[in-house]
Amino acid sequence: MRTFIESIDREFSNLHSHSCELVQKIPDEKLFWQPKKTQALFPANSCGELVLRSAGKVEQTFGGITAKLWDDPFEWTLPETLSTTDLILEYLAEVEETRQKGFTLFHSDADLRRELPAPETLKTIFALLIETLARAEHFQGRAFAVFQVFSEEKLPKI
Hints:
mainly alpha, two-stranded antiparallel ribbon, 2 strands, 4% strand
């Protein structure tokens, strides 16, 4: 039975679609626009940065699942590297491809109970996927909020 696998897969797929749709709505000059520069505990990041962080969480998890590489993609997802809409969309497509490859490794819901040596501790695949989805959706939601600061356009339907 693959009830949970299919449900989680669908949520990750929706996350990807919403990020792509949002990035396509952002004018180039606003891609890395920050609402305000601050030294506060919670910095006001740009839409581009937040979308990249969202995708980076997914990439890190599925890099760990598929290749046992738990590297944080921070260095290769910097705004200086992925500076345009097209480059961000290419990166999102690469992350989605890695994610889909990871899901081919799950044959039944029982696979979600297996434990992996996630970056610091052993975790079930289920817990790892849910935590990743929550973190990625959090960053995406923040990107949506920044988008609403400078645009009257409708957000992707969630």
